[in-house]
């Protein structure tokens, strides 16, 4: 069974420019609330046993808080992504440095100049990868992921109407997929079930925004903004759960997984 155990998380604080210049803003962002929510996010990650590496905000990169899109780390190796939106491609530079020099992990660069891939389109189940083919991630990007992690099956899944695959579904537990009742989520789930090398359980929530959650170190972190979906988690999930509010990040198409890179560093002993 996949353990989803991690030792570290990389996060980035929110720049002031996020309020007006982040991509995809659909509502007025309260920057002070956003920063408080992010502080609580980091606190929760530390609370489940992660060493959290907090990067300073970069005012020239309004979306830098969404670090998930910059790298995919698995089995102690990091694939440095090439985000599909040109405005975000500089975000990978500091992430590359942190992973290589501070965490001392081997990195893999994407060789194909035509390849693009956002980490938000990469769902790792612990047994295999699914890669959303979206406006940000193309087939060459999926091939780059497959080349980086040949020990796992990699299945491309075409996604429409949504920014990232993990806005439609995510891991809610060991071998448990969380999906919403929305038409696109159900369609993507059906395709995954057809292509998967393993049969997964599912938890279906009524709110589209609740389908993105984090499962790490035996704990499910789910969105606190959706009471009806919280009822489903309470009923269906029998291990540790934490409700976390990221409402202000959602106004720029952010979600729970977007703001961290989870890493398991082997032979790592946390200092007492």
UniProtKB/TrEMBL annotation:
<keyword id="KW-0378">Hydrolase</keyword>
<dbReference type="InterPro" id="IPR033199">
    <property type="entry name" value="DDAH-like"/>
</dbReference>
<protein>
    <submittedName>
        <fullName>N(G),N(G)-dimethylarginine dimethylaminohydrolase 1-like</fullName>
    </submittedName>
</protein>
<comment type="similarity">
    <text>Belongs to the DDAH family.</text>
</comment>
<dbReference type="Pfam" id="PF02274">
    <property type="entry name" value="ADI"/>
</dbReference>
């Amino acid at each position: 069974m996949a353990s989803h155990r991690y030792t570290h998380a990389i996060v980035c604080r929110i720049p002031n420019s996020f309020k007006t210049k982040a991509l995809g803003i659909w509502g007025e962002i309260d920057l002070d609330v956003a920063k408080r929510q992010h502080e609580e996010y980091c606190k929760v990650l530390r609370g489940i046993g992660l060493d959290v590496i907090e990067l300073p905000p970069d005012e020239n990169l309004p979306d830098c808080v969404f670090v998930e899109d910059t790298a995919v780390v698995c089995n102690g190796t990091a694939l440095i992504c090439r985000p599909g939106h040109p405005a975000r491609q500089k975000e990978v530079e500091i992430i590359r440095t942190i992973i290589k020099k501070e965490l001392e992990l081997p990195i893999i660069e994407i060789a194909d100049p035509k390849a693009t891939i956002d980490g938000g389109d990469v769902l790792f189940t612990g047994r295999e990868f699914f890669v959303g083919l979206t406006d940000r991630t193309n087939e060459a990007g999926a091939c780059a992921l497959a080349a980086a992690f040949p020990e796992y099956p990699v299945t491309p899944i075409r996604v429409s109407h949504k920014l990232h695959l993990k806005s439609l579904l995510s891991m809610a537990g060991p071998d448990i997929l969380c999906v919403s009742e929305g038409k696109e989520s159900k369609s993507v789930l059906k395709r995954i079930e057809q292509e998967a090398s393993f049969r997964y359980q599912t938890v279906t929530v009524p709110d589209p925004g609740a389908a993105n959650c984090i499962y790490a170190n035996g704990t499910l972190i789910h969105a606190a903004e959706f009471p009806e979906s919280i009822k489903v988690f309470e009923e269906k999930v029998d291990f540790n759960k934490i409700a976390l509010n990221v409402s202000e990040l959602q106004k720029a198409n952010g979600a729970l997984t977007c703001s961290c890179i989870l890493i398991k560093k082997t032979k790592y002993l946390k200092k007492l």
